[in-house]
Amino acid sequence: MPVGRIGLVVHGAREDASEAAAAVERWCARHGVPAVEIDVWRKDRPRHSGEEEAAAAGYPDLVVTLGGDGTFLRGARVAAACGAAVLGVDLGRVGFLTEVCTEDVERALDCVHEGRATVEDRMTLTLRASRPLEIPEGIESLLRYGRGPALPPPRVRPSDPEEVGWGVPMAVNAVNDVVFEKLARDRQASLAVYLAGRLFASYSADAVVAATPTGSTAYSFAAGGPVVSPHMDAIVFTPVAPHMAFDRTLVAAPDEVLGVRVLTRSGRVAVSIDGQLRGVLDPGDWVGVYKARHRLRLVRLGPTDFYGRVRDRFRLSDAPAAAADGEVPPLYRPSAPVPPDLRNLRFPPPGGR
């Protein structure tokens, strides 16, 4: 994958991010590759949609993010709009999405440029709504106090006028999740949840989360949801503090639509996409969340050890009683050739650690 143009997303509050950006720019200068900073946060300049950012940057074919997973999601938003691959440089605390440390950024760019890296596809979500999403005046500043500038509501994608009743399609892709959350502390969100067109249950809750497998280790996990392999496609539905006996997560198939309707006497509901406020729903409004056609393209320098990363990031330890009963190897990979019926399955590489 020879690199033709790079889009840089930099965590502006971190000095090490600026140093890593300088390393990327040096690499670009040596290889004659243009580099443009994207999604720059300035008080005097509003943020733009992913399509506008991609166009202003000359449609990069590689987006490099310098920060943590939050910075990665900023870059992924732009990459999804133009089909670019994303390389995440890890400067954060959790780092499920980022791939390399700052010391290895130039080596990583060499691997991508010389075709020695792989690209891993991940499912994203998009949505249709009963009306275009809007953020009422005054609410944005309240909800974003102390944070960076807000994104605009997603624009409406062109659609067929004959699609009456199916809602307006939004030009947006969620890498992690779409969250429907109560606006007022004293008013629960009352939401009817539909799966594949049929009412599943009506919830009174602080929020409900529709997550991708990639996002299963984010807000959904914090709310008690399962860890789901990012190598599969699914929609993970997790209620947050529901006032009902059934408080379990539900994992839906990727071809099933998750519908959320705000009940008549509910409080208003905020819609956040990958942690960014993108709209507010009134009673009677509805949104359908479903698998997007566009997939996120993650640059990987080697086989992904997702479960090892889960163990490391969450600092998992073995049960004391189990540890006392004997030691176990960290990997299982026999040295003999893989049998034919196992060759299409995932295993650690030979000699892996």
Automatic annotation (TrEMBL):
Active site feature: D69
This enzyme's EC code(s): 2.7.1.23
Cofactor: a divalent metal cation
Protein's recorded name: NAD kinase
Family, per entry: Belongs to the NAD kinase family.
GO terms under cellular component: cytoplasm
Main location: cytoplasm
HAMAP family assigned: NAD_kinase
InterPro entries: ATP-NAD_kinase_N, ATP-NAD_kinase_PpnK-typ_C, NAD/diacylglycerol_kinase_sf, NADK
Principal EC category: transferase
Source species of the chain: Actinacidiphila glaucinigra
Known function: Involved in the regulation of the intracellular balance of NAD and NADP, and is a key enzyme in the biosynthesis of NADP. Catalyzes specifically the phosphorylation on 2'-hydroxyl of the adenosine moiety of NAD to yield NADP.
Compartment(s) where it occurs, according to its Swiss-Prot or TrEMBL record: Cytoplasm
Region span, Disordered: 324-353
Alphabetically ordered keywords of this record: ATP-binding, Cytoplasm, Kinase, NAD, NADP, Nucleotide-binding, Transferase
One MF term in the entry's GO annotations: metal ion binding
Reaction catalysed by this enzyme: NAD(+) + ATP = ADP + NADP(+) + H(+)
Binding site for NAD(+): D69, G70, R74, N176, D177, R187, D206, A241, Q276
Encoding gene, per UniProt annotation: nadK
Entry keyword Cytoplasm: yes
